[in-house]
Amino acid sequence: MILRIGQSTNGSPIQISDDPNLHMNALGISGSGKTTFLKGLILALQEINAHRIVLDFTGDYCEFEELADEIDVKILDIRDPSLSLSILEPEHPDDTPEDIADRLLGLIKERMKLGDTQWAYLSELIVSGLENGTIKTFDDIVTLAEMEEIHKNVAIRLLPKLQKLNRILPKGTDPATWNLDTPGITVLDLHRINDPASLAILVELLVGTICGLRMNKAPAKYTPVFLFIDEAHRLKLRENSYIGRLIREGRKYNLHGVFSTQWIKTAEEASMLEQAAAQIYFRMSDREAARTVAGFPFKDRQMRERYRILLSTMPRGQFLVRHNNRFYLSKAPRITKYNT
Question: With the CA atoms of 22, 36, 205 and 171 taken in that order, what torsion angle do they form, in degrees rounded to the nearest 10?
Fold first, then answer.
């Protein structure tokens, strides 16, 4: 499979070929051209009959609806009743209800600021509900907490947090609606969600659902699936998260993450995103440029300084690609309806 991601300054294509790792990370300041690049890449992936899922935090990608007559395009509000989450399904044949509860609570504990008492109560509620079949969705968890009598004081303090998250979670139950094996574009419109904590949890649950649907099916000739996460600096990227699983294991299932971020906050985030085979650098701040070139395989200080200056002065739309420690500088993109 050949993946074309741009054109170099000498006119030759910049491409990744025969590499199972097709994860990409685009880094650059706001207005440097990352979103325009991602829109072009989404369209270019039509050449390899890929399914593309876009987590749209800003509403910028809803314009793809104009292409619905030519390409299979779906623009879905996150509250669309056809969407489903598989957050309470086993990920492995030997998963126990305790494993499922721990996975979900590990995701929401910090972001929802759960105390130890609330965590223990919620864990027991989920485990017992899974064992007796009364819990299949997050909505069921909220319903049981609303009916709580024995631990009513704990449930009363916990319910506002659960209800707030439940209001934005998809309520569908049919995983077939994701159509991962059908080429096309699915844009999930998230831009109306204003609460950062709920948004971060929702994104992780969506990524976990997509990973589960692809990784738990019988091996076959998979349709390539590319999951686009623009504005990734809004999230807390962690190795033990669903996004971490996507980066570690996705390539084995022809499932690839494409990330875009304005800055990298922690060493853990840097370690995760650097696992992407293609690093795509747009114009960045002096600080990010210095941090970035510090990881380049150059012993010559003058060479590093030239790259630092390049990264901090490139015009909008131009980018530098690092793949297998080789570097390619792109031409400025042509003006189209997607980058005007």
Answer: -130
**Tens-place pLDDT, residues 310-340:** 999 999 999 999 998 899 999 876 655 544 4
Positive/negative CA dihedral, 109, 110, 113, 116: positive
Q: Determine the angle formed by the axes of helices 196-215 and 242-249, rounding to 10 degrees.
A: 40
> What is the secondary structure of 74-85 as a DSSP string?
EEEETT-TT-B-
Please report which helix (H) or strand (E) contains residue 10, including its range: none
Question: Does the pTM exceed 0.85?
Answer: yes
The crossing angle, in degrees rounded to 10, of helices 286-293 and 301-313 is 140
- 8-state DSSP, 325: T
- Let me know how long the chain is: 340
* pLDDT tens digits along 83-100: 888 888 887 778 899 999
Strand order in the sheet with 278-281: 73-77, 184-189, 51-56, 225-229, 255-261, 24-27, 278-281, 320-323, 326-329
In angstroms, rounded to a whole number, what is the distance separating the alpha carbons of residues 114 and 117? 8
Instruction: Dihedral sign for Cα 19, 274, 237, 125, please.
Output: positive
